[in-house]
User: Fold these one by one.
Assistant:
Number 1:
Amino acid sequence: MRRARLRARSGHDEREERLRVLVDQNQAALLGYARRRVHDASDAADVVCEVLLVAWRRIDEVPDGDESRLWLYGVARNVIANHRRGVRRRGRLADRLRDHVMTAVAEVPDPALSPNVAVIRQALAALPAGDREILALSVWEGLMPAEVAAVLGIEPGTARVRLHRARARLRQVLSADDESDLKRDADVGQVRGGRATARPGAQEVR
Amino acid sequence: MNDHELDELVAGAAVVHDDDLRSPTIHAAMRAATEEIIAMPQQTPAAPPRVASPAPTVTPHRRARALLAAAAVVALVGVAVAVTVDGGGDADGTGEVVAPSTGQTLVDELPIDDGPVEIDAQIVSATREAFADSVVQITQVNVDGYRDTMWSDEATGAFRIRMLSADGSRPLYDSGAPDVDSLGVHRSVDHCFAEYVEVTEQIGPSGDADEQVPVTPFPAQSEADRIVEWIETGMIVADGTELVDGVEMLLYRWVDEERTMLVDPVSYRPTTIHGYPGTEFEYVQTYEFFDRTPENLDLLSVEVPEGFTLVDQLRGDAERADAGCA
């Protein structure tokens, strides 16, 4: 009996350590994902809280390695979808937990907007949510089409097609004049865009 | 503006970049939150993935047996729901359904031949068999009107996707192999500019061109594998039946998403998936299974209409958008 209890304790310790490692490895990605998709910091804190709780409850299901980040994105996506539907379920979350996450989220800097950034954000906001999300996963999260597909639960080929369409729609939203202005600005480095991690060449619809 | 330039602009519009989120303060706060979670009273563990019993040999299904089995699903779901109200459901307020331990016991004690696990196994078996032996046509109609049709033939690995305009009147893009014997050759036709390309796929599974691994156009995970995974891991669960054109279809529901799948009660094949109703993501996906006749296999071939020009590279998105072909 004692041995069984020790084994159980050992398993619990492993799960605890797994959660710690999971959070350590993905905290920036998770915070960034949430902060880039909800309006204010406190909402982002709510989202991160819920994702962490789901991760803890399902720690045995969380895949290893890089896939863990995709798994967290998938959970976060569902949490945000619920959040946007007004189904807020943080009533039972411990206040201290929220305080901790709020501290982290509040640290997130909000860079000053250049006129071009405002234009792009407006254009992104005008896109259907599905287009916006697939562009965000590709560019902001730097995911390859196969990874985007894993987060969205679709085929990689479908992800490529949807990304293709999302870019096309974004171009439509940006007027031809605005686009050429933006392009000139991008050429001379006036837009903060140097951190794009996407590899467009590999994402072309073939 | 090419894709790379557009992506650069989108990247610059991000509220925050991950690199900005690696401060000691953030690390300490997140670590504190983690310890807070670990110290919380133990959550009820989520139900382990439900593994279907070994798939039985598929025998000709009699309609009476199928309907009886469907009725068993309804009855069992009723039992499970009744118990869930008592001890399970959205127990921790995160919106995720936690299987009640007592409910699981009740279900497990029932004869397996009449239970949902048997139904699951039938669906798994029938789905695998249907995808392996058929030309499968999957039509997806999105809420914005766009319609994609995908064809697959698992026996050869051939795959094709065709996109139609929002009004469905004309093809915009068609991609797949020239024919089922040309695996590795990928043809894409731009109907907007009457151009096409043919390439031998050299992109590896990760999408990294450096891998130089020839692959077929077939997706890494087949649709059959996905459906089986949904069932075997408990991502979708039986939720009674739904009357469609006078037939009581078996209804499966995603545990943590607003999606449902209908399964034919006689063939046990999936027929329809309805996703995210009432949202911008809403879609209806319909499955059709055709015999592997030469005529049906031709559905997988991407043909080039007369007068189209072979080019090295298709036009960019901007030109397509300007031409109203997005």
Number 2:
Amino acid sequence: MSETLFPLAFASDEFRLLTGIVLGFLFGFTLERAGFGNARKLAGQFYLEDMTVFKVMFTAILVAMVGVYGLAAVGLVDISMLWINPTFTPAQVVGGFLLGVGFVMSGLCPGTSVVSLASGRIDGWVAFAAIFVGIALFTFTVDWVPGLNTLYQMGSGEVSVLHEVFGIPAIVLALIFVVGAVAAFVGAEKVEAIFQEKRQPVELTPPSRPRFKFAVGGGLAVAVLLALALSAPRPQARPVQMASLAPLSLAQAIIERDPSIMILDLRTDPASERGIPGAIPASDEEEAIAALSAAPPNTTVVVYDASGFFTVAPPSWPRTVDYRALAGGLEGWVTQVLTPLEANGTSLEERNQVLRQNQISAFFSGAAVQATSVAAPPPAMQAGGAPKKKKSGGC
Amino acid sequence: MKAKDYWNPYLAGVVLGLVLLAAFLVAGNGLGATALPKRALAVVGNGIAPEWTASNAVLSNYVADGANPLRNWLVVEVIGVLLGGFLGALSAGRLAKKVEKGPNISVRGRLLYAAGGGVIMGFAAALARGCTSGQALSGGAVLSTGSWIFMLMVFAGGYAVAHLVRRQWV
């Protein structure tokens, strides 16, 4: 279950199908009112005397684009749940070209042929029936005409989106398209005017309110900026590999009562063995996140499990603190900190090292009894507002 | 009775865009047109030759899960287009049994063009896995790279042969 609102999850298939009828109805009605039930008007696009196809289609694409990616930017739409046409470049190049050829011949495309036949146009009926034949023709020939299936299947077949190809956010690309489209609409109207003088086109769309396109373009641009302003800086939804921390360094930090350190005990059975003094038990995800959200920014959070397998911070953990994994987990702590060393070093330096380590060891072994009073509450809690405020919710 | 004016194209575009947006928000996919004929063909194929249908490169996609291929959002959506187109034409005073053509071509000639173009379009839409609605409009809105390639090629194909078939329009 995703946290986003859209696309909607339906309790029943029937209700979902009902929305198909309703939206299809609005689709067909709008196409009719745009003049797309008329093959002559549609064909005008290819003779540059009636650019309605271009204007309607691109306005619609941009409205939906800004809507989908704008709502995604503010967290209302889960793009990964949407059907995005996969890319099969060769089939789309050849199929697109052929469809354009068929479009100008019939004056209709598959969708508009439905509107045309619904308006009673005989050419619409013929075109729709022929589309059926064409689909059947491809279906029957794809498996045995040499190369046809290869052409059909060639290419990645993966979902590729332009904003990732260009490496910019979708909503920014949408804004670029909006600006480009308004300029193209102005150009299209100039071209139309030139070609309309030469020919007498059919049933022109009344040239009312030419400023409407600027209003639409401006509205879309505002929507993009609004989405950008409202888009929350998303936490990096990626697990992070934690640097490891030697048990002795942790021991040192505890002895020095370093206020910027917080220790998290991630063992699932914390009762099995005494943990590190001052550690906050967090045997499940919920406890861990609760503890982590209480930590002041820039705290160094040292986590440990039984034997040091936990080295990757999950995506759900806040990114306002630094993470370190205790090398070897509790096992490493026991062997390196709690177990006194044999003083078999030869040099003075080595002997001092052993001595210091054994002091630490004695500190914790002795302190173990009164650990709760000595080292707890965890040092990080005393830090309060001490760490410098670096990051507050950016824009 | 004089027919109502067509809508301002930008207004029609905004309304169409909102319908398309609603389709994505509600159903999780865009709008289409060729799903109906393709899936109807799958039903016919399944009735006559189920094994062939199940192994066919196009139809196998629609019968794989064993469900009725016509019980599909895009299929009922096309039925909605039919109803919407009909009521749109009726309420605008444009419902009429006639052939749209230029003055310099016979009805028969125009219908031959419509048939020829239709067959090519059906073949192309099956090959490209979608048509102007399912690929260019819907895929274009969600920035699918392949859909934008398709869309540019539709215009390229249309302009490439427009001069050759101008007889039926001008």
